[in-house]
Specification:
Blueprint lengths: L6 H24 L7 E4 L5 H7 L5 H10 L8 H12 L10 E4 L3 H7 L1
Parallel strand pairs: 1-2
Length: about 110
């Protein structure tokens, strides 16, 4: 097994692992009537995000990522809450086993930009 030494890569791998776990758990918990989903949020304007955006280690990388993403900015806690409200409410009854990427298109830009 290869050792992962880059913290950003380790974070990305853990998010992917969580999405796969959610898919598997949705099958198990669906038999009990539960829905299981996860949200993979990009940079959301919180105190922790501001620390990251201003850090010497990765701040410039994150600021460039946000400015060149399709949305051109980070997200807000209210935008995440709106997604949670939708998938948790009656309008989301048919949604389970899903990973919701909500990052203003940053991942799409990183892959295809």
């Amino acid at each position: 097994m290869k050792e992962i030494t880059e913290s950003l890569y380790a974070y990305q791998i853990s998010k992917r692992g969580n999405a796969l776990r959610v898919s598997a758990e949705a099958v198990k918990w669906g038999k009990r009537g539960a829905r299981v989903n996860c949200i993979s949020a990009g940079i959301i304007y919180t105190p922790l995000a501001y620390d990251e955006l201003n850090s010497l280690e990765r701040g410039e990388f994150y600021r460039k990522m946000l400015s060149s993403s399709p949305a051109g900015r980070g997200g807000t806690p209210d935008e995440i809450a709106a997604l949670v409200e939708f998938i948790s409410g009656s309008n989301g009854n048919y949604i389970t086993g899903s990973d919701f990427l909500i990052d203003g298109g940053a991942t799409a830009m990183y892959r295809y930009g």
